[in-house]
Known about the structure:
- GO terms for molecular function: succinate-semialdehyde dehydrogenase (NAD+) activity.
- The protein is of the alpha/beta class.
- It has helices at 22-39, 43-59, 61-72, 76-100, 134-145, 159-169, 181-187, 200-212, 235-247, 267-280, 299-312, 357-365, 379-383, 421-426; strands at 2-6, 13-18, 104-105, 112-119, 122-127, 149-154, 174-177, 193-197, 217-220, 225-229, 257-263, 316-320, 332-336, 348-354, 369-370, 372-376, 393-396, 411-412, 415-416, 429-436.
- The protein has 14 helices and 20 strands.
- Strand 10 (225-229), helix 9 (235-247) and strand 11 form a beta-alpha-beta unit.
Amino acid sequence: MEISTFNPFTEKELGRYDVASIEDVKETMRTLKENQLKWRVDIDKRIDMLKESKKNFEKNAESLATLMSSEMGKPISQSIAEVQKTLRLFDYYIENGEKSLENEYVHTEAKKSYIRFDPLGVIIIIMPWNFPLWQVARAAIPALLAGNAVLLKHASIVSGSSLKIQELFNLDTFRSTITTGKIIDDAIKFSDGVSFTGSTAAGSIIAAEAGKNIKKFVMELGGSDPYIVLDSSNIDEAVKNSVYARLQNNGQSCIASKRFLINDSIYDEFSRRMLEEYSRVKVGDQLDKDTYIGPLSSVSQKDIITKQLKELKSMGTVISTGDNFGNVIRPALVKMDKDYGEEVFGPVAMLSRFRNIEEAIKLANDTPYGLGCSIWGDPDNAEKLVPYIESGTVSINKIVASDPRLPFGGTKKSGIGRELSRYGILEFTNIKTVWVN
């Protein structure tokens, strides 16, 4: 059995890859476990090895970015930015990893009592296509630094990127496997933990398998993030930032703002100016450095968004910025009359009005998801909303973005556990109490 990858703009085949069997995956995991037992011993050596990995990614930044964009359609400028962000992630953990894992001493009646953080073993990371490097790095690097080995099962449409990432890590404790979702689900029972980023539906299946086998798991799942614009906002800034907030990665981001909740007094002006900005973005070949919107990741993804746009016509007024072609969906705004409960994973912004703060909070929380929220307005007034917003991140006068220095994750159906910061590195450790008399 083979997996093929395609350029979603030209629809030409890029590569073919053999699919690993469950026995192949188990053998890889056995080897990783043997290597992990040596890897876990010396954190200074782990840091030195990750410094070498970083150099490899730095040297190959342009070629990796081109491969990523070719396979899944992200504009090349954004793929280059993704590699650069990953280099900063390396820097953060190289500088802070050892301190994050230091023993914590607690004063008790014991001669000595403390908490130490030991690695679990082999961690399976199941990652999506939308950020082919960043999603892998933010799961793998803290797990590796904590002393674990990592097996990557990437989305099949970025199989070439998956193998390139393995090559650049160049560690005997990191491997990529090209296999099916069913096979990797079966392999969870042989692991020591699993990290998954992707849809809520797929996450529930993986969480059930992990739970059945009592394996630690971290889930970063779907989102339908609100972008709240108060009447005290700087409209120029709020409109300008709404472009990247919704259209980053061709609209295919869990933390992209998807529901724009706008104070009634500024709704008409904001929506008019937002449409003007969305109409200006350059659409086309993702490998053109000036392209802002490239193709969606695949034919199937384009079909999903096309179907959702038809459904949204019965729930509001759909305004497109031009004709769609191939796998390219041009940015669209929907002035909503009714709620739409699904996550729209494409360049479609849904706009709703609110009259007061209470209504804004109700609309923001009226979703099964809780990943991020962006609020635009006077900082003191905006911050008063924070305790009532049901999400893992609230950004004021800034779009929602992950940052290596801060924990990242969601609530409700957007996930369980945290990535990044010290919280992320501790997720796949045994938090061990030691008492010495």
